[in-house]
Amino acid sequence: MKTKRVDFYYFSSTGNTILLVEQMKSIFESRSLEVQCHCIPNVKPEAIDIRNTTIGIAFPVAYFSSYPFVWRFLKRMPIAKGVDAFVVNSSRQHSGTIRRQLYDLLAKKGYKPIGIGEIPMPSSANFQPYDEEIYEDSVQEGVLRAEMFALSLLDNSSVWPSENMMSKLTELFKLRKLAWRFLNRDFKLVIDTMKCIRCGICYKLCPADNIEMEHYPEYLDKCQHCFRCVSYCPADAIKFKDKEKFYPHTPVPHEKILEFSL
Ligand SMILES: Cc1cc2nc3c(=O)[nH]c(=O)nc-3n(C[C@H](O)[C@H](O)[C@H](O)COP(=O)(O)O)c2cc1C
Ligand code: SF4
Ligand code: SF4
After folding, report:
1. Can you tell me the distance from the alpha carbon of 195 to that of 94, in angstroms, rounded to the nearest whole number?
2. Ligand 3 atom nearest residue 208's Cα
3. Burial class of residue 183 in the structure, from the number of CB atoms within 10 Å of its CB (0-12 exposed, 13-18 middle, 19+ buried)
4. What fold does the segment set 181-261 form as a domain?
5. Given the CA of residue 223, which atom of ligand 3 is nearest to it?
6. What is the pLDDT of residues 194-241, one digit of tens each?
7. Which amino acid residue places its CA nearest to atom 7 of ligand 3?
8. Which pTM value belongs to this model?
């Protein structure tokens, strides 16, 4: 790595990506690099300081792509001639066309894409019970991969592989703007006011400003399906309207998600 400083710009809906970023941060710091973390969408892309730094971008995969607010952020990043940039994405299985899309986007803006770490982690969308031990192992493995990726960046051996056949296939299914509207109907969230303790955590956690907090929280129509609110509600008061049950996976305490969201 060319610089002594790394700036992470990242989003994590349920905590997996936070764990990856934290691990990479600790590796970089152990090599005396200065690391700053900035949370998408709270930080403004216009505020990105590209001087003497390497840019790290980290986010979860959603529907073979990522959330519209993540793309909005990435598209508004400043032009940065020759600034090194790397990407970490966490996904359950497959990150679709992100590899190519991000390479193109960064290169077009003048960044030098120096490596991408596509790291499998447990699913944040569980409508069936899951095996906690298997998920815990998967977290440990993911964190280890993040460590290896950080080391490869440090010794300049990281790579940005070209697209494979699977990525090309998923291009066909990649969800476009209109499809989010359709998903809004399928994944409609509702509050059980009998259970809600009006703590406001869902309101504070929502990255899409989709929750209004009056007497009880109320959903608007801008949900981007990050599943943060339903995963971290302490009273189990949020349900999917047309689904029987949701099994949240919450690898970090909600205080940490809040801390990383401010
Ligand atoms: C709405 C939604 C869509 C998802 N789509 C994909 C996907 O297309 N491919 C995949 O491998 N994982 C997918 N996942 C799983 C997440 O990418 C994965 O669990 C990720 O590690 C979550 O990271 P986070 O905890 O930092 O948000 C999806 C999760 C959600 C909530
Ligand atoms: S997080 Fe749960 S308990 Fe707290 S306000 Fe939201 S719905 Fe109610
Ligand atoms: S309403 Fe819930 S699931 Fe939708 S964007 Fe906000 S936090 Fe995420």
Report:
1. 36
2. 5
3. middle
4. Alpha-Beta Plaits (3.30.70)
5. 4
6. 999 999 999 999 999 999 998 999 999 899 999 999 999 999 999 998
7. 206
8. 0.93
